[in-house]
Write a structure and sequence with these properties.
single chain, 133 residues, mainly alpha, 3 helical TM bundles of succinate and fumarate reductases, 5 helices, 83% helix
Length: 133
């Protein structure tokens, strides 16, 4: 027979048992985004207003392509987790579930579209580079 008090069973769990993990994930992704976003904005700003060939040339290079992919993936995961936390705080019942599903769907859709566009630009840049060489 186990003699555990309610306090002993609840120690270290928080409301859902994952509060600390969620907090650390959000903190680490925010720190990562603090470094990724300014560099991405600088690279994107340099290509803004240029022609199609210049944009393809810029994003077919490894550093801008990897940086863009990291920014999109980390940013959208950060968005999804933050939106989930906000929805859990302010919505109840079915609207909570639907809201979380919509937030994650938006996050995955934006990530998929951005990575597809980036892969297509990289592939086109590779083909154009091979034809020109």
């Amino acid at each position: 027979m186990r003699y555990l008090t309610a306090r002993k069973r609840a120690e270290g769990k928080g409301a859902s048992g994952t509060g600390t993990e969620h907090h650390w994930y959000m903190t680490m992704s925010a720190v990562g985004l603090a470094f990724l976003v300014p560099v991405f904005v600088y690279i994107f700003g340099k290509t803004l207003g240029q022609g199609h060939e210049a944009v393809i040339e810029t994003f077919s290079r490894p550093f801008p392509a990897i940086l863009t992919a990291l920014t999109v993936v980390v940013g959208m995961r950060h968005f999804a987790k933050g939106a989930q936390m906000m929805i859990e705080d302010y919505a109840r019942g079915t609207s909570r579930k639907i809201g979380i599903i919509i937030a994650y769907s938006i996050s995955y859709a934006v990530t998929a579209v951005a990575l597809y566009a980036l892969a297509k630009m990289t592939f086109i840049g590779f083909i154009l580079g091979a034809m020109g060489a």
